[in-house]
Amino acid sequence: MLLDDLLSRRLVVLTGKGGVGKSVVGASLALAARARGKRVLLVEVGAPLEAARLLGGPPSKGRVKEALPGLSTVNLDPATVMDEYVRHVVPVDLLARRVLSSPIYRRFFSAAPGLRELMILGKIMVLEEARARLSRRPAWDVIVVDAPATGHGLAFLKVPLVASRAIPVGPVGHNARRVLKLLRDPGRTGLVVVAVPEEMAVVEALEFQRLAADELEVEPAAAVLNACHERRFSDPEEAEVLRLTAEEARGSLEPGVALPAALRAARRQIRRRRLTRLYRGRLKRGLAAPLASLPFLFRETLEREDLELLAERLEAA
Amino acid sequence: MPPQRRPEATLERALRERHVLVVCGSGGVGKTTTAAALAQHAARGGRNVLVCTIDPSRRLATSLGLNRLSGKPRAIDLSGRRTKSPRGALWAMVLDVKSTFDALVERHTPDAAARKRILDNRFYRHVSAALAGSHEYMAMEKLLELSADPQWDLVVLDTPPTRHALDFLEAPDRLMDFLDTSVLRWFLKPYFAAGRLTLKVATRTGALAVRLADRILGLEFLQDLSEFFLAFEGMYDGFKERATRVHALLRDPASGFVLVAAPAPLALEEALYFHRRLTEKEMPFLAVVVNRVHPDPGRGAAATRGHRRARVPPALASKLVETFREQQTLARVERRAVARLEVDAKETPILVPEFEQDVHDLKGLALFAETILPAARAASNRVRAGAP
Known about the structure:
By secondary structure, chain A is α/β, with parallel strands linked by helices. Chain A has helices at about 1-5, 20-35, 50-55, 80-90, 95-100, 105-110, 115-130, 150-165, 170-185, 200-215, 235-245, 260-285, 305-315, and strands spanning about 10-15, 40-45, 65-70, 70-75, 140-145, 190-195, 220-230, 250-255, 255-260, 290-295. Chain A has one domain: P-loop containing nucleotide triphosphate hydrolases (Rossmann fold, 3-Layer(aba) Sandwich).
């Protein structure tokens, strides 16, 4: 089972091209882990606050908030994490506040390349290593991270590698090496590539796998093909749809649903279903990791029960 | 407010007349495809066009039906069986961050020794090429360089996803901030310029900042960093001048911004935000392109009232109804989201329907342009009519 292997690791990092539904897959994966009785933390990087919204929990800007029993969310904002780090390094409150309010600090922080990424990954490492005070058991069984989109996703994950080379000594260099070790440890971290059945997304997922192996020395642990159009019409039904189309059959199926319009919709569904099969095949052939497929959902808004449905699909994959 | 011109016509005209086109939007909305489609259209119309992607993943190559694009402009063969041979030329390239940065250093360093000092600096070597922020800095630099090259009538720039695209607009300022001598003098220079480790810094906060930096980054790294800054100091004026020119270029009436979005509510929200920022910054905005709009299967269908009931097996009929309803829902959600764009941004978007096939080759790009641009459609019809 895909989840058995994936969820044996504490840290699960989702990557993929923008618009492939990483947030939705992340929230579903978190629900699937929760259904297995695990204590789950869903981490978002940057602004969207999607996870909390999807799960119906409180927005969790900067703070870990429980969205459901056993499932918490947190939105990591680089500036907040950096401030927190400064407070940690400078234990004297007055001094820390002076640093934080200094314009130099602000400007340096906003401009120094890679510093934000490094801070976020460092924070994720701290979460991964967190232990309960008395029992010493890990604070989280599974941490699902919704990483930035692929092109930049690899840049994001590459920061510790670059930093460990650029900064050979000192705490930042040391921490960068620790983060890198965490990302490279298949016993602790699993990378999940998310794609949709479309040319660009599939090309990019395969390219991500190659670059991750070449540059990071990491293999994806799993892949998720989101928004799949699944088979609805049997072969004879598909033939019937084509026959009715060719005959220019008329009439209505029910009030407001004319047959020609419904046939048009059906042909579109069949076409997308075939494309899904094509791209799933390409992804399967190109990827070394196991692949799960999630259906395209036609909804006004996504509700938690929709995510639960996706979570079940992940569980069954 | 004057009545808005048809956005298709605005875009069409820009492709004939403007010199720089910046295509921006959030990830996964078909920005690269849109950039490539517009570029090939302008090339077919007789201009020498260069399309440049600064996205580190090589999507543009796929759009052009190629496996790889390099940091050097490469000619794309536009002639096809069914298309009229183009009057202009299309070139494509991917931004090479490292070599752009190196070239920038070469241009602004006073002598070989200074150049070597920077190019060999450990901080520079690792950070210049690999990290996310450098892409935006160098994209701006490259855009400036390309736009000054008389070989191109039009440069089409594809940009990274929205949040990064904003970085990209602000890249010149951020670069200035990072290299700003006053910051350096305050922060690092007094620390190392004397050649020894001293904490005698002008202000107490400055001393604290240095001590903090030492604690976080380590002395050796600080030394690399300060050498890097010291080496850059002589280049500051050159950089500043470039940044000013980038600002001017982006605001130039010969430049234009095309905002690309997807019809999903979240993607359109980001588009709205980006539109607001562009307007605030007085950038020459051209049009919003909304890609892959799902058609409403019920639209255009004859009224069903009075129709007799269709003769379809019940199992198939219920599947057909379900499929119809699903697509109707999707179309409704998208229509509402797009309507918000019209209300909030007062822009009539160009809607691009979802295509039968994914667009990933030149034929697809031509079809894309034909769909949204009236002149492209007319030209293509003429070719078809003339074909045997």
